[in-house]
Design a protein that fits this description.
By secondary structure, this protein is of the alpha/beta class. The chain folds into 2 domains: 255 residues, 3-Layer(aba) Sandwich (Beta-lactamase), CATH 3.40.710; 177 residues, D-tyrosyl-trna(Tyr) Deacylase, Chain: A. It is built from 11 helices and 23 strands. Strands 4, 5, 6, 7, 16, 17 and 18 form a 7-stranded mixed beta sheet that branches. The chain has a 6-stranded antiparallel beta sheet with strand order 2-1-23-22-21-20, with helices on both faces. A 3-stranded antiparallel beta sheet has the order 9-8-15, with no helix packed on it. A hairpin with a 5-residue loop joins β12 and β13. α2 packs antiparallel against α11, α3 runs parallel beside α7 and α7 crosses α8. It is globular.
Length: 490
């Protein structure tokens, strides 16, 4: 005789996940429907590599085309890493950035140093702070002013020991590193580690257009302006390049007369950029600094009475940060969070390699095949990053029952409404019914997410097109046709 033991809610959830994992591993194969196969084999992009998987909300495989083949996921990889970040840190996790004084005050002089401890916050920018990237420096300036401090006799240190000193993941293309999507990673970062260039071609044809940049035309960067104003009916020809290892940026664009251009361009040595901008802000407000600006990589005893805490800045919760990362497909956020997970989990300096090991461990927990995956970064920009499309599709099924499901789903772009999918699908019935993530690098277009169908079902859809030579807009049309078929068929 069998004795049945009553199960609480937590036990039932774990049992469900166990059975789900087993079912996903041992699932029967499925073939793709004729209409989908016809779309894939359209001569417009039939020379590309296509992969597709579709499941219902229970995880049952409905459609599969090269689903167990390795693909380059591009930014669809962020669906994996964002699940890891929520799983490991929780949606309520908040970053901290601390300002310390080391010394003592004598009248209006701080006799000693200031030290800023960076702990990986990617949100010290305008997007998260009512459009004001300088908000934190204004806050700290007011704290010093309220203390009556008009001069700092010592140095300003920026401590970035929370992360290792490797600025990029392996495998990023060198010509991406001048731009915002290839910015350096540092535990102490400001304005996503870019300066924001503005150019208005309002001077004579053949002349060099005037430029300005944020923050306050800082001399932290040097622009060599070799741009040219061309006739009003000519095409804009963009050319920006930061000389590797320096903050010297070559500008060689050709701009039609009257053309206005803005471009966020990356800098090197982000921690120094942070403290340099802070120091300039203090001096503009009348607080003098006698000493130097020093980037510190020493692990400090932050509980020592030598460190007087002036302020602890706390970020918005991780749920909001992951939402920005996925909806805006922010590479910088993805890589900063990867190192943060490593630092938090193992109480050591965060590194890309250690973070990627955590990603693989999570994949095993979710019942995914981590044995054949090749991970070089968190954002999907590295061309050597490979995984099976089925991993993406199965993960989306698995996350439906995760405690952080609400935050995970909320991080998706809504087709035709927001994020990177805002201008996709037009008047298609898919608009407003597909919630997911797009991905793009040269020759790679991916799309994964949740489709609410005409019959009120939820489908989990993953599509990848690799190695295509047509325009990306052509591939997008085929992806939309696949979603529209699934919308009406299921």
């Amino acid at each position: 005789m069998l004795n049945f033991i009553p199960m609480n809610k937590t036990s039932r959830i774990f049992l469900f996940l166990f059975l789900l994992t087993v079912s996903l591993i041992s699932e029967p194969s499925a073939q793709v429907s004729g209409p989908i196969e016809k779309i894939i084999e359209n001569r417009g992009a039939d020379d590309a590599f296509w992969a597709l998987q579709v499941r219902d909300s229970t995880g049952k495989l409905l459609e599969s085309y090269n689903g167990d083949k390795l693909i380059r996921p591009a930014s669809n990889l962020k669906l994996v890493v964002s699940a890891v970040y929520l799983h490991e840190l929780g949606s309520d996790y908040r970053f901290k950035t601390n300002l310390y004084g080391i010394g003592e005050q004598n009248g209006d002089v701080w006799n000693g140093d200031l030290m800023i401890r960076g702990m990986g916050d990617p949100t010290i920018n305008g997007d998260f702070n009512d459009g004001d990237p300088l908000f934190l420096f204004e806050k700290w300036y007011r704290i010093l002013k309220e203390k009556g401090i008009k001069r700092i006799s010592g140095n300003i240190f920026g401590n970035e020991s929370y992360f290792d000193d490797i600025p990029y993941p392996k495998g990023w293309e060198w010509d991406d590193l001048s731009f915002y999507y290839g910015a350096e990673i540092s535990a102490l970062s400001f304005n996503s580690n870019v300066v924001e260039l503005e150019v208005l071609a309002d001077s004579e044809i053949g002349s060099i257009p005037p430029i300005q940049w944020f923050p306050f035309n800082t001399n932290y960067v040097e622009f060599i302006n070799e741009q040219v104003v061309t006739s009003a009916n000519s095409k804009y020809d963009e050319s920006y390049r930061r000389i590797p290892g320096t903050n010297t940026i070559l500008l060689r664009s050709k701009l039609p007369s009257g053309y206005y251009e803005t471009e966020p361009l990356s800098i090197t040595n982000p921690a120094h950029y942070f403290i340099d901008t802070f120091a300039q802000y203090l001096e503009m407000g009348g607080i003098e600094i006698d000493g130097q600006l020093i980037v510190d990589r020493q692990i400090q005893n932050w509980d020592s009475p030598d460190f007087l805490l002036f302020d602890e800045h706390t970020s918005k919760p991780l749920s909001e940060i992951v939402k920005w990362m996925n909806r805006e497909s922010d590479n910088f956020f993805a890589e900063m969070l990867l190192k943060t997970v490593a630092a938090e989990k193992y109480n050591t300096e965060g590194s890309t390699d250690l973070g990627l090991e955590i990603v693989k461990e999570f994949m095993n927990t979710a019942g995914l095949d981590s044995g054949s995956v090749v991970l070089k970064d968190a954002s999907g920009m590295a061309s050597a990053t490979l995984l099976k499309l089925s991993n993406l599709n199965k993960l989306l099924v698995w996350m439906q029952n995760h405690p952080e499901w609400d935050s995970y789903f909320e991080s998706m772009s809504a087709g035709g409404q927001n994020g990177t999918l805002k201008f996709r699908f037009g008047s298609s019935p898919v608009a407003g019914n597909f919630y997911g993530k797009s991905g793009f690098v040269t020759g790679v277009r991916t799309l994964s997410g949740y489709l609410h169908t005409q019959k009120n079902n939820r489908l989990i859809v993953s599509i990848a097109t690799n190695n295509y030579a047509v325009r990306t807009s052509v591939v997008d049309v085929f992806h939309q046709r696949i979603l529209e078929y699934l919308y009406s068929a299921y």
